[in-house]
Amino acid sequence: MAGAMLAGTIVLLGAGLPELLRQSWAVSPVAWAQFVYAALGAGSLGYVFWYEGIRRIGPTRVAAYAYLMPPVGVLLAVLILREPFGLLHVVGAVIIILGVALARAPSR
Hints:
The chain is mostly helical. It contains five helices and no strands.
């Protein structure tokens, strides 16, 4: 995965270099901190946890947990951004959680 990300970065840098050179880098320290968090925290740690999960419980069971991202995203949007929360959100979350529970259930 690291090799694929490095190769992709090289290709993107090649394609985006002209725009990078024209970009204004006068960005606040808070914005730089957010960038570092997104790159190292959320990005890198996310992959570390993902592959550790695959090592411990296998790819099929880990993939089922990926479906929990939308309900968590909605929950965070409601709590942090004060987004509206409706019946369709509840129905969607229940369906997703039941699906993940079904995938976790032992096979008979």
